[in-house]
Amino acid sequence: MEKQKVILDCDPGHDDAVNILLAGKNSGIEVLGITVVAGNQSLEKTTKNALNICQYLGLNIPVYAGCGQPMIRDKQLLAGDIHGESGLDGPVFEPLKRKEEAEHGVQFIIRALMESDGDIILVPTGPLTNIAMAMRMEPRIIPKIKRIVLMGGCYQLGNVTPAAEFNIIADADAAHVVFTSGRPITMVGLDVTRKVLCYPQVVERMEKIGTPAARLFVDLMGHFNKSQKQVFGWEGGPLHDPVTIASILDPNLLVTKPMYTEVDIRSVQSYGRTNCDFFGYSHRAANADVAVDIDVDRFWDLIESGIRAYGS
């Protein structure tokens, strides 16, 4: 199988960590780089978390620090209630020896795309600031983006407000730039990621693999599941971000529906909402393939395969 070239743009984050794990040694994925954005925690912390994950898993993938605040708004929204003070509470890592690259994450995205043959998929699983800034700084990259497979948004219920999902509301202006870019977008939103709840039996299944990667997964889910139960009352945390890479690996994983999707950047009550025209009321051309269903069993099989790829 030909490897899909991807750039992971993330804000680790427990589910981001599993997404890096899933992509890192998969025979179907070539990770060109990891760009980091503030979101689940501050940029300093999310960058450190990305480096810790790569070091622990033995992944020789360059990590680039990107934007530490939204494009326009003056305050960065963080998710410490879910991901803890470090942004990755739970696992205990060895002293960090890895360092981020000197090049800014946005500049890396621009350089990689400009040097490409139009064969790179962008996989953002945090606020879309880095992607939008790259588009604004160098518009020539836009037609070179093969596809954007993003975790964010919802066509039903948000998780920060009744209307808005975290990654979108954290920088709705950036999301507006991305959704109006004209590039193919797959929107993996809360509507499907809330179906992949990491119940205790899933954790036990992965723990039996008995590898360092399996132990990392168990340690991550220990904190993540606890915080999700405290905040949302669920017995298992929704593993949002890995649905992106999983859907690239298995094109039959998701059921998607083309929809015209508009990001609300004007209102107060619904700021950050992804208004997805499910029924085509607007008669406007669809600009996103919005995920509406997922094969949960296939998803967990992909996660298990991803963990097993690291061996003993």
Automatic annotation (TrEMBL):
CDD domains per UniProt: nuc_hydro_IU_UC_XIUA
Keywords noted in UniProt: Glycosidase, Hydrolase
Entries under InterPro entries matching the protein: Inosine/uridine_hydrolase_dom (IPR001910), IUNH (IPR023186), Ribo_hydro-like (IPR036452)
GO biological process: purine nucleoside catabolic process
Domain of life per record: Bacteria
Domain Inosine/uridine-preferring nucleoside hydrolase: 6-301
EC identifiers of the protein: 3.2.2.8
A single MF term (Gene Ontology): purine nucleosidase activity
An annotated GO cellular component: cytosol
Protein name (Swiss-Prot/TrEMBL): Ribosylpyrimidine nucleosidase
Native source species: Lacrimispora saccharolytica (strain ATCC 35040 / DSM 2544 / NRCC 2533 / WM1) (Clostridium saccharolyticum)
